[in-house]
Amino acid sequence: MAEREAGDRIGKIASVEVMTPGAPKVIVHGDVDFRHAPEITEAVRRILEDGNKRVDIQLADVEFMDSSGISALLDAADLARRRQARLVLVSPTRQLLHLLEVSGFKLLFDYEQLPALVEPVPPPAGAPAYWQVSEFRVPCHPELVADIRHRIAEVGRSMPFITEEIEDIKLAVGEAAANAFRYGCPAGAADSIHVRCVGDDRALTVEISDPGPGFDPECVAVPKPGSLVTGGRGIFFMRLMMDRVDFVRLDPGMLVRLVKRVRKRGPQTDAGLTV
Hints:
Layout: E1 15-19, E2 25-32, H1 37-49, E3 54-65, H2 67-82, E4 86-90, H3 94-102, E5 110-112, E6 132-139, H4 145-157, H5 163-183, E7 192-199, E8 203-210, H6 233-241, E9 244-249, E10 254-261
Parallel strand pairs: 2-3, 3-4, 4-5
Antiparallel strand pairs: 1-2, 6-7, 7-8, 8-10, 9-10
């Protein structure tokens, strides 16, 4: 797993490998998004076609996974079910378990080596953050989605969000940015994505805009929790993770606005994560 050069791209380069002989295992590393997620399904397919009745997917080294990665795992689970095989997620991260639980997909998998339950870590004590503004533009290179997630997460970490909420923000921001890169840049690398982030003691608001033709979100079929229907999962996860999601047509372009409110907390916050 190769780290990107400092000052270049944030995050880890994703890779998928199959470990044999013995019990076959798919080992996944790095940031898993739409560029590499299909490799997971394809690796599971090859193992099942060899007649194996169990496939382990090792996830301990996954830094981040978006809806494309979830979709790849769901497709792999469907392949295993059709062949009456067992698909086991080994050492899934807390972020992945959280996504599977809130999206209704948890029961579709078997698990081994689950992470220990820990109390969420609140932000450092001190004065709350007021009117933090971060605004930047990035060229249309899909690998820069990780940079956008990283920059927004840094703002979120200075606010009263627990770790799980930061992961929610990263996922939603990543989905919006990935859609902007994939569908909102008709001129390719000549286009750019504009990002604006505002944080105060009430909420974090992120706006991601692109120069593309835009779309009508009401025409996108968004799956229900637990549904294996493909398509629309990016919007599904954005709405699931954030308190408000707006789609605004520009002239030209499209803007996605994501809002995560700051919660008032008691002395302790439940970190309940069950499998």
